[in-house]
Amino acid sequence: MLIDKILVKKQGANAETRLAIIDFMPPLPDGILWSTFMTDMSGSAVPADKERTLISLEGDPRDEKFC
User: Fold this and answer.
1) Across residues 12-33, what is the average pLDDT?
2) Burial 33-42 (b: 16+ CB within 10 A, else e)
3) What is the pLDDT of residue 20?
4) Beta-carbon contacts of residue 47 (< 8 Å; ≥ 6 apart)
């Protein structure tokens, strides 16, 4: 699949459109980082038998700082 363009839209009074989900995420606490995130994917390709993770946050759910 060839991706022409992905637009992420925020609804409501402060409606916005961006090129990546990460642009709408709040800042993370110090020492916590996104495991995976995609920025503008325009013009990229995803093979038919593959998938693409747009955003992922991995950590220990027992860690208070992570939670």
Assistant:
1) 90
2) eeeebbeebe
3) 92
4) 1
pLDDT confidence of 17, banded at 50, 70, 90?
Answer: very high
Tokens of 15: 């409606």
Output the 3-class SS for 14-39: CCEEECCHHHHCCCCCCCCCCCEECC
- 30: its two tokens: 């110090």
Amino acid 12: pLDDT: 86
* Residue 26 pLDDT: 92
**Cβ atoms within 10 A of the Cβ of 53, count?**
9
Q: How far is residue 54 from each of residues 38, 58, 64, measured CA to CA in Å?
A: 5, 13, 25
Residue 49 is which amino acid? D
